[in-house]
């Protein structure tokens, strides 16, 4: 596949790689050498979200960042693929296994939490560290507002908003910024261009539905949370997040009291607003847990 004309290779100066999966080709980047760090994105983002961390950390580490099917430069299957968090987790596991990555550090954000942490729960012996950014790993049934919105978005009006109007990249994405100045026209384009048609936006709509449909899957992950207790954890939290409830950080702290916590003065997309600070925190954490 050729580099799309809209992709700024200065902003995103990485070599394209693909893994052939059952339901399509998964795009990913693999930069640098050393200990492996796997970056797992959520919605409506793709590996572009991690570009500042990739540029910085590839100097010392091997940095792998995939695009889930339906996002970024990966294929966007219309039928057969379920787009469930569990299906994405299966794809991520296949990528890690095929690349024979060992003693990895998982960095997860948004839906990347319940996707990436499934691998850590299944293979804790192969995960050396975990970095958690504004995400969750438990049932959201008690979050009344999230359930109400998710159920509405799964209906005909929500489907229209997501598939026809590009609600996720056009309207939700800006809400994830504390300071909109960081969401420049060029950066906004890089999130909207991979999602220009209804067929290409299926992945974002399925994530909106999954907030309530995937609760049994989330709950099953949470039951196994003890498997991660001995793995060193860094929690980087954008304190001005308007997309996730403020109590999510409290939940992480309660279950993993030994985790290192770093508050970031940013919104949901702290990798964008405070890219250098996030990169430095990950590097320091890696050095402290060699």
Explain the layout of strands and helices.
Elements lengths: L16 E5 L2 E8 L4 E5 L10 H7 L4 E5 L18 H14 L5 E7 L1 H11 L4 E9 L8 H10 L2 H8 L3 H9 L9 H8 L9 H12 L1 H9 L9 E6 L8 H9 L4 E5 L5 H4 L1 H14 L2
Parallel strand pairs: 3-4, 3-5, 5-6, 6-7, 7-8
Antiparallel strand pairs: 1-2, 2-4
Helix pairs in contact: 1-12, 2-3, 4-8
Protein name: Alpha/beta fold hydrolase
GO molecular function, one term: hydrolase activity
InterPro entries: AB_hydrolase_1 (IPR000073), AB_hydrolase_fold (IPR029058), AB_hydrolase_sf (IPR050266), Epox_hydrolase-like (IPR000639)
Q: In summary, what is this structure?
A:
With 290 residues, the chain is an alpha/beta fold. The chain has one domain (17-288): Rossmann fold (3-Layer(aba) Sandwich), CATH 3.40.50.1820.
């Amino acid at each position: 596949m050729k580099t799309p004309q809209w992709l700024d290779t200065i902003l995103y100066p990485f070599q394209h790689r693909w893994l052939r999966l059952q339901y399509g080709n998964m795009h990913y980047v693999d930069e640098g050498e050393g200990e492996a760090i796997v970056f797992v994105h959520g919605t409506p983002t793709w590996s572009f979200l991690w570009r500042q961390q990739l540029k910085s950390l590839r100097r010392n580490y091997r940095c792998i960042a995939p695009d889930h099917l339906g996002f970024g430069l990966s294929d966007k299957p219309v039928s057969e693929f379920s787009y469930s968090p569990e299906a994405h987790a299966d794809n991520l596991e296949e990528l890690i296994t095929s690349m024979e990555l060992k003693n990895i550090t998982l960095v997860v954000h948004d839906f990347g939490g319940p996707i990436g942490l499934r691998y850590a729960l299944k293979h804790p012996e192969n995960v050396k560290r975990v970095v958690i950014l504004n995400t969750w790993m438990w049932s959201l049934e008690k979050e009344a507002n999230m359930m109400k919105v998710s159920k509405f978005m799964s209906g005909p009006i929500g489907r229209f908003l997501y598939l026809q109007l590009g609600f996720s990249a056009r309207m939700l994405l800006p809400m994830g910024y504390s300071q909109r100045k960081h969401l420049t026209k060029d950066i906004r384009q890089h999130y909207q261009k991979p999602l220009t048609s209804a067929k290409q936006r299926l992945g974002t709509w399925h994530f909106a539905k999954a907030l309530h449909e995937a609760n049994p899957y989330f709950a099953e992950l949470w039951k196994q949370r003890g498997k991660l207790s001995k793995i060193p954890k860094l929690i980087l939290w954008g304190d001005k997040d308007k997309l996730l409830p403020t109590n999510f950080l409290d939940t992480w702290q309660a279950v993993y009291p030994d985790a290192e916590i770093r508050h970031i003065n940013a919104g949901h997309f702290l990798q964008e607003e405070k890219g250098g600070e996030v990169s430095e925190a990950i590097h320091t954490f890696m050095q402290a847990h060699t």
